[in-house]
Amino acid sequence: xxxxxxxxxxxxxxxxxxxxxxxxxxxxxxxxxxxxxxxxxxxxxxxxxxxxxxxxxxxxxxxxxxxxxxxxxxxxxxxxxxxxxxxxxxxxxxxxxxxxxxxxxxxxxxxxxxxxxxxxxxxxxxxxxxxxxxxxxxxxxx
Length: 142
Prior knowledge:
Layout: H1 3-27, H2 48-59, E1 64-72, E2 75-82, H3 88-97, H4 104-109, E3 111-118, E4 124-130, E5 138-141
Parallel strand pairs: 2-3
Antiparallel strand pairs: 1-2, 3-4, 4-5
């Protein structure tokens, strides 16, 4: 007598379970926010020692006041603060010189983000980016 109602309820329960599984996989899914974009990073990982050497390289320039290097995913962020008497062209040259200090395999894997700042009477804030597939830095004056 309740055969048709039982079949309809069973189908509804199966459909609801499938919908919950699909929605869960889309919205909750895995914890890896980068997906497969970081595959192979362990071969070219920028270690703490690499960051320390790059920071020391930058701070050996008398024009550099402070610097910091951090990585996030496939991007290396390099912040350089310059002393008051440093021109923008000199600052860009110092940033370009860092390309020689980073391993060639790392340059082909990581994107680079540069933040050049100088405070004082003639201050500047300049952002530069270098894609892993390109050889040059693109500069944007902020």
